[in-house]
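Bumping my old thread because nobody answered last time. Still need a sequence for this structure:
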């Protein structure tokens, strides 16, 4: 679709009149009308406002002229999985697993490869093929080419190490020592936990990126430990395959 069609569809989907949209992005109704007729396109600053309002990328607003891929892991990007800057605006360069709230979540390429391999191997592609592909691809991406410029001098890694220490110091019975924390998006790990009252409660935000990992229980059996954390809390649970029958072990504010 062209920009004019995209803007019209997004406006209608949100139930806004041209005047209401104009008020939200600080332009005139006539300006919105000209956009939707294809006579003009919004300027850069207005595109940013429209992106935040409609929760889509500027690339989408312009009719998707570019094929976006994450400049950290190489994943094809769609609006639903874009990372966000500190101010909450979408960042078209990274997925939400690699970049969250203005923070890069990977500082070690080998760690990223290990995570990606687990998710990319299938019946048609072997682990060796995936690993070889990533070892060639990742060094060509902007994040790794500009790592010295973009990195935070290890501050995020220090934060992860502190979290790992706090979690291990809890000495949860049956849970093995935690070695690593990976970026996990809320919608994939936001399990419902049954409270004593009988109510099912979810503690996470589907759109937020957390740090976590899955660990096999030292007791054996078919239940795993799930660890999730961020700056505000630590959550530990157990569950069966595919997150079935989850049970909350601990929820602790930091």
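Sorry it took so long. Here it is:
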């Amino acid at each position: 679709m062209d920009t004019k069609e995209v803007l019209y569809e997004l406006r209608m989907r949100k139930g806004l009149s041209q005047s209401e949209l104009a008020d939200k992005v600080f332009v005139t109704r006539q300006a919105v009308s000209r956009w939707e007729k294809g006579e003009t396109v919004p300027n850069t600053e207005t595109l940013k406002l429209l992106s935040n309002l409609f929760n889509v990328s500027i690339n989408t607003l312009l009719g998707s002229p570019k094929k976006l891929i994450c400049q950290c892991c190489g994943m094809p990007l769609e609006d639903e999985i874009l990372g966000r800057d500190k101010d909450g605006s979408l960042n078209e360069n990274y997925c939400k697993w690699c970049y969250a709230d203005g923070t890069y979540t990977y500082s070690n390429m080998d760690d990223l490869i290990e995570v990606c391999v687990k998710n990319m191997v299938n019946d048609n592609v072997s682990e060796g093929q995936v690993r070889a592909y990533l070892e060639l691809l990742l060094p060509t991406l902007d994040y790794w080419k500009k790592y010295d410029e973009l990195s935070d001098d290890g501050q995020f890694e220090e934060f992860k190490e502190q979290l790992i220490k706090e979690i291990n110091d809890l000495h949860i019975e049956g849970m093995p020592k935690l070695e690593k924390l990976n970026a996990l998006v809320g919608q994939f790990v936001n399990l419902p936990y049954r409270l004593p009252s009988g109510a099912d409660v979810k503690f996470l935000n589907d759109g937020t990126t957390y740090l976590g990992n899955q660990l096999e229980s030292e007791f054996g059996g078919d239940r795993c430990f799930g660890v999730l954390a961020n700056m505000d809390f630590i959550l530990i649970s157990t569950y069966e395959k595919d997150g079935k029958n989850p049970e909350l072990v601990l929820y602790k504010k930091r």
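The mean pLDDT is 94. Let me know if any region looks off to you.
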